[in-house]
Amino acid sequence: MATADRTDDGTLALSVITGAQRSLVAAEMKQAGYAHRPAAFDPYSYGTPTFYLPEAGGYPRFFVASAARHYPGTDSSPASAGVGVQMTWAGSAEVPLNGTALLLFEQSSAGSPWQLASTSTLEPGVSMPRLASNADGAVPTVPLDASTLLAQPDVTGPLQAGVVDDGPASAASKAVAAGRLTTGMYQAATDHVQGLATPPGDVYQWDLEGSDYTAFTFRTADGAALVFYSMYLETVTATPGYIDKASPIEPGPRIVYPDALAPWIGTGPHRDSVQLQDLLTFAAVDPPVGHGKIQVIAVGGGVNYAAAS
After folding, report:
1. Other CB atoms closer than 10 Å to residue 54's CB: what's the count?
2. Over the stretch 28-80, which tens digit does the pLDDT of each residue have?
3. Helix, strand, coil shares, percent, the chain, to 5
4. Are 295 and 179 in contact (CB under 8 A)?
5. Collapsed DSSP state (helix, strand, coil) of residue 194
6. Model confidence over 94-129: pLDDT tens digits?
């Protein structure tokens, strides 16, 4: 990716990535092409990585590398941790510019190349959980339908979505801890801090929902599951008539949106609706029963698609 970034080679960049990372890089290429600038495939610098290798199993296979990551021109000192954040265009999730990145690599089948599938950054002040290991030093995995944990690992994302969509009043809050990536995302969406201005009389809605990208797990030393997964954050600003599927739709005031959405929706004016999709990658700790709540500890991603009318 560093070579692709240096040479602005989109074909090379796409050849070494897969999954959610491929969709996000394709979106970045679309934005760069619209703005007539080089694409920023991976502008960060990285420290020495630590590798976490799972026990051998079927395909797709994966491993994770963690490394300190720094965005050029920003302060990465411990005193500034959590101060600089990169806002995704939905604005309900923020990705720290500097911190510990978790890079998940995937191999789809025997003989196929290893490719970067997702990148998430640990929340400020959060460390990588201590992982279990077998006699060979490999990390055991946890079945996605395991019933020995607070929740099956494959419903970690949907439980997080319940809190992001409905806030502390959600029944899912009994299983999901409050934090910047759960109740914080709900509050950010409620406050409309997303770069989209909702005109008087219009409606703003959001929905965190699942994706088809493969989820992976590690077992931690204390018996929890560290779950890596991807979600779509869908937001819409629209007139009541658009929401209610009226015919005809009575146009509302012009909807103001960030310039970064222009590659998909142009410069407008758009008076009926602006719809935005972020693709977000997460890591969460799903504890054993009786050992607390699910903690969402890392996030990555950004704008993936937009539409308007």
Report:
1. 19
2. 899 989 988 888 878 889 999 999 999 988 899 999 999 999 888 876 654 44
3. 25, 35, 45
4. yes
5. coil
6. 788 889 999 999 999 999 999 999 999 999 899 999
Q: pTM of the entire structure? A: 0.92
Please name the residue that has the structure tokens 């959001």.
206
What is 106-133 written as a DSSP string?
A: EE-STTSPPEEEEEEEEPTT--PPPBP-
User: What are the backbone dihedrals phi and psi of residue 112, each rounded to the nearest 5 degrees, phi first?
Assistant: -80, 160
SS3 302: strand
Ranges 67-71, 106-110, 175-179, 241-245: which has the least confidence: 241-245
Q: Which residues contact 132 (CB under 8 A, 6 or more apart)?
A: 139, 140, 218, 219, 220, 221, 223
Q: pLDDT class for 191, splitting at 50, 70, 90?
A: confident
Looking at the DSSP bridge assignments, the partners of residue 103 are 65, 119
Residue whose token pair is 């909807």? 255
Phi–psi pair at 40, nearest 5 degrees: -100, 85
Helices (H), 167-266: 183-190, 240-243, 262-265
CB contact at 8 A, 286 and 225? yes
Q: From its phi and psi, is residue 196 left (phi > 0), alpha (psi between -120 and 50) or beta?
A: beta
